[in-house]
Amino acid sequence: MQLQYTPYTAPVFLSAVVGLGVGAFAFQHRERPGAFPLGVFMLGASLWSFAEGMNLAAATLGPKFFWTRMETLFSCAIPIAWLAVVLEYTGNDEWLTPRTIALLLIEPVVVAGAISLRPGLLWTEMSLAEAAGFVAFEATHGTVFHVHVIYSYLLVLVGGALLLRVILFAEGVYRTQATALLMAMFVPLVGNALYIYGYLPTGVDPTTVGFLLSGLVIAGTILRGQLLELVPVARHLARDEILENMEDRVIVLDDNQRIADINPAAAELLDRSEAAAIGERVETVFPDVAALLDGGADTHVQTELSLETDEGGRYYNVRISPLRRVGGAVAGTLISLRDVTDKRQQRQRLEVLNRLLRHNLRNEMNVVAGNAELVERELADSDLSDRLDRIVETATRITDQSDKVGQVSRTFDEDGTVTVDLCETVANEVRDARDRYPGAEITADLPADLAVEVDPAIAIALDELVANAVEHNDSDHPTVTVRIRDAEGFAVLSVADDGPGIDPHELAVLEEGEETALEHGSGVGLWVVYWTIEQFGGYLEFENDDRGCTVTVWLPDADEEPDEQRSDGSPPLSGIRQALDATAIGFSGDD
């Protein structure tokens, strides 16, 4: 083959070497997003540059035409590889399905076939021409060649648009990386367009020299800009993961108030799939929220909304804010709903505590005031000592109730459960109760040990159960029996006494969850027990009989997952909360 030297030969071969080096590095790190297609892109650029160098070196028509065909063949891989780089880099690789890749490869396969079998479809009237002191290849381009060019440019422009979006909306290193990638492709693209459409002298094709710049820019970005190490796809995936798994319900509306995106939690609230919800108008599927948008697309709303769900009535904190494009134009609306039902219940409980405390303190202080007046009037009366004792007892009750309110309030601020030995805890409480109530007979029937997963305030609840059994007993010598048994996934604790039983009105107050002027509890003891047991999924039962009351508490074992159905008839864990929501307390026997 007759050879020639041109001033462009060395830069073109250097471009081939740089492209090969960058491509090899990318293949070595192919597990990183965008690395494998980047390797294909740079290898294609290297082969194109090598073929262009050989074309420049050849001095006769035959070899020049051969290397021209090789250049075009190698160019087929570059637009597709470039688009794949951008899709993976920007986190849009879900488009890179086998079907999509197969469709993208149709055009290169057709062009490769034409190059091999019908080159006349790409080039006609081939000849040699003098160009700046060397011989250059010259030809008229056919229809297939122009279709190939247009197809390639379209793929490059799609990738460029995705990168431009990153440049506009990202910050810091991501903007630097995207700018470098955009430059790496568009410098060769501009040079190629100028050459193909006749804006440069014959024989001067700057495309491959542009690939030299591309390789250097990409290499610099890899070394200094953390390309292949830190890419936006990680942020996109993290945001998607957060959105998919967050408990808040999130809905994105377009500027026509149609659902443009929705997370699984919101779709579940609407009782439909995400795919079915997208495209629906918000007033069709979510009229309660749509009513909050009457102020227009620029509406800012923060309010509380009550919604009926499969779980019953739930309360949500609703936030609505506009989404804006660059420049400030409203592009849509972001709606988030946070379930605040538990917080409302917490607030209601505290309100009940407040009302109960004020009511009982008022009544008890009336007793204090009345007895004090009697003492003042009857200072010489023989009953003075008894009345003073009454004052002291009443004051003590006030103090005790205040302490109980403080204890139960503090339990609401503690999150989570702890594993405790229920038998040891009960034994300690029984021992303390015997010391406090020497006139009562308090016995315990306990296994060796039994671990349960409970709220830290369980000791308070146990103390209240034993104290109520003794203090509300009208017998001269109260009898209280505490038993524990294992019920396949539950620890069952019972406290039985021989007193008059619990007034059904007291239980009705607990069932309602609030006090009224005509129906109220006499103390906070039952509230302490009820809320503590309820807080970790326990179940509470009261049974009155002819002489006595038995309080039974079901506590989830620490070491077992409760079965859906118990052989002993005990309630499954999944049904406990439903029971609490429905009635919270069951009691039987004589009222």
Structure description:
The structure is a single chain. By secondary structure, the chain is of the alpha+beta class. It folds into four domains: 9-234, Rhodopsin 7-helix transmembrane proteins (Rhopdopsin 7-helix transmembrane proteins), CATH 1.20.1070.10; 246-339, 2-Layer Sandwich (Beta-Lactamase); 350-413; 415-589, Histidine kinase-like ATPase, C-terminal domain (Heat Shock Protein 90, 2-Layer Sandwich), CATH 3.30.565.10. The chain contains 20 helices and 15 strands. The strands form four sheets. The chain has a six-stranded mixed beta sheet. Helix 7 (173-196) runs antiparallel to helix 8 (207-224). The radius of gyration is 41 Å and the shape is elongated. 32% of the residues are buried. Mean pLDDT is 80; it is low at 515-522 and 562-591.
Question: Please, how many helices?
Answer: 20
> What's the CATH class of the largest domain, please?
Mainly Alpha
Q: How many individual domains?
A: 4
What's the end-to-end separation, in Å? 114 Å
Q: SS-based structural class?
A: alpha+beta
User: Strands of the largest sheet, in order across it?
Assistant: 9-11-12-14-13-15
* Major sheet characteristics: 6 strands, mixed
What percent strand? 15-25%
The appropriate CATH architecture of the largest domain is: Up-down Bundle
Low-confidence segments, given as residue ranges, are 515-522, 562-591
Radius of gyration (CA) equals: 41 Å
User: What shape does the CA trace take?
Assistant: elongated
Mean pLDDT: 80
> How many E strands?
15
If you consult CATH, what is the topology of the largest domain?
Answer: Rhopdopsin 7-helix transmembrane proteins
Task: Give the fraction of residues assigned to helices.
Answer: 40-55%
The CATH superfamily of the largest domain turns out to be Rhodopsin 7-helix transmembrane proteins
